[in-house]
Amino acid sequence: METNSVHQTDNLSNTLYSNSRKAENYSDYQGDLHKNEGEQQSASQPNQTIAKDKLELLDVVTEPEPTFEVEAPVDVRIHSSDVDEDIVKPMSSVVNSLDESDSMDLEVDPFLPAPKAPTPDDTNDDLPIITSQLELSEKGKISINKLAIGRILDDYKKNSFNARFSLLAHLIAQSAADDNIMDLIQRHIIFHSHDQEGYELAMHVLYQLQSISVANSPESSTSTSKHYEKFFISLARSLIDSLPASDKSFSKLLCDAPYLPESLFRLLEDLCMSEDNSQQLKDGDGDRVTQGLGTVWSLILGRPPLRHVCLDIALKCAAHSQDEVRGKAVRLVAKRLYDLTYATEKIEQFAIESLVGVANEHTVDTDINSKSLKESTAEIEVGSQGTSVSGSQIPDTEFSENGPFKTSSVSTKQSAVSVSEAKRRTSLFFALCTKRSSLLQHLFNAYGRSPKVVKQCIHWHMPNLIRNLGPSCPELLNIIHNPPEGSEHLITLTLQTLTEDSNPSADLVAAVKQLYNTKLKDASILIPLLPSFPKEEVLPIFPRLVDLPLERFQDVLARILQGTAHTGPALTPAEVLIAIHDINPEKDKVALKKVTDACTACFEQRTVFTQQVLEKSLNQLVDRIPIPLLFMRTVIQALDAFPALVDFVMGILSRLIDKQIWKMPKLWVGFLKLSFQTQPRSFDVLLQLPPPQLEFMLNKYPNLRTPLSSFVNQRNMHNTLPRQILNILGIFSETQQAPMAFVTATLQTADATTSLPGATLM
């Protein structure tokens, strides 16, 4: 038995520092004790009582102590170079103290046989008792964790094992309160962001922190959640600041993280609404606004519980004051998010509420000086946007009562909403209308009650919208058939856009004609369709077209003379002039000033209303019965525009004498003025006048008598002219007597008439 006991002691001493053999030797030691018990019972019965007591004591002594299994890493060799001397030294002192205490505990039991005296070969120390843990202060724990994490990270650079991610995550979670450790891990993740290792470590840390937060009590969970949020936000900011905008690490982090705190959404919203343009200019391969909106798009698709939060961010950006931010957000919402069934209704509601809200803004009384007007116009500049927004300006114009566009004048009333504000709140709506034309009804309903600046914004957006929808859009045709109150000007602008590049469809023409004949007696809505109207349909409405403002009538001329490729112009230039002169101001209820302005507009287009056109139209007008009221005014304008027409005009004057022009008082005044202006070319015509009419003219223009007499003497026309004419000219002595006393009532009437009403003759 003594031999066995000594043998057992030797075995245990040989395995003092081997953790892997420790549990095995404890088992052998207990087995030998049971074996010695059997041998004692068989050898000595007298000592049975003592042996029994001893056996009971041994049962107590040999009860197995609780052990802690430690699994050594597979194939891990610890080199002396990898051991930190600062850690080894204190640990060695602890082990030595444990050896001394263990040697004192292993004294010989009085109930056991005396052990054999040690021989020179027995040099091993007694087996120590290994404690379960070593108590350290919080500072010491953090220090050791930091050293361990640093060593693992250094080795991780050389040999990457996935098992170390979990080990690092546990160590980091235990040290989450230490900023130095968290900064160390964060820098390591950023440094390895180009490869998968940095991302994997970040995910392990986040999931470890979140799992602890979920598993712990509410008090502990709050603390862990704060550490999680702090680490997450800091890491996200570092990714934004350290990596280019085109890098996907930030978006991937948010999509794969176990939980997104509320502060993270504020960071994402700030990124989407970035106002730091200098940072964007630094990024040659992208910008931060695109990065933020791309992340929002990824979160909406990849994390359904966060859809509504991310959608709110996108909608806020779609109404942002900066054109660049708003343009990119509008494209994201209209092109991608609007097609998602779970987002369509919310997006529509947001866009409609924005439009209606800005349309209901009331005007306020204020003084607008030229400086504030220029500043208001400067706010309209639009940033570069792909589809619905371009780099142009909204013109400072308004839709006047008689036509679509008119230069705005300074007014004492200004809208409470600025042009830039109106554009900000309507951009998304117009982008959605291109995808769903049924929204147009909301636009036309709101137009009538909208302030001036909102209408300007609508006018600016409308052409692009109408071009995208096309003339065959059924919603547009329905609105034209039955337009909401106050939307007539918007209808006209719509028709102009629909017909500027193509001929109107038959359905569109029918809808406009029905609208004009039944509800809207405004000829301006017919202007876009005039090229497709035949002559028989244009002439009846021509007085209404002339009654439009001059700017609108110029548009009328262009469209009538343009015509279509198949039918040609609705009216020729000569027919236009004749149609203008056929207007009776009293009968047609058109102001004479409108008619004269229409004639002037024609003469301004000399490439269209040429000399040949004027000759043709005047030849027809002079034969009209009665001669048009503005005929002589038109003859004077024609001669001023084309002096080469002088011979032709003399022929017109001769024909007027044949028609007894002096019996037409308003035309007679123009005849006299033109004759005086065209002397001496008009002398032959004047000598064709009857003596009373010639006498009247010479009395009206006394300076004309002498040159006319000289003209007769030079031509030796004494024998061809009537004696009364010669007497009027004073060629014979008797002409020195008093002039003829008779003056017809017609001449008296003509003398009382000084000019044509409403016209200024040259």
TrEMBL record:
Basic and acidic residues: bias regions: 21-38
InterPro entries named among the record's database cross-references: ARM-type_fold, Symplekin_C
Regions of compositional bias (Polar residues) in chain numbering: 1-20, 39-48
Symplekin C-terminal domain sequence ranges: 522-700
Coiled-coil region list: none
Pfam family, one: Symplekin_C
Residue ranges of the region described as Disordered: 1-48, 375-411
Low complexity bias locations: 382-393
Name this protein carries in UniProt: Symplekin C-terminal domain-containing protein
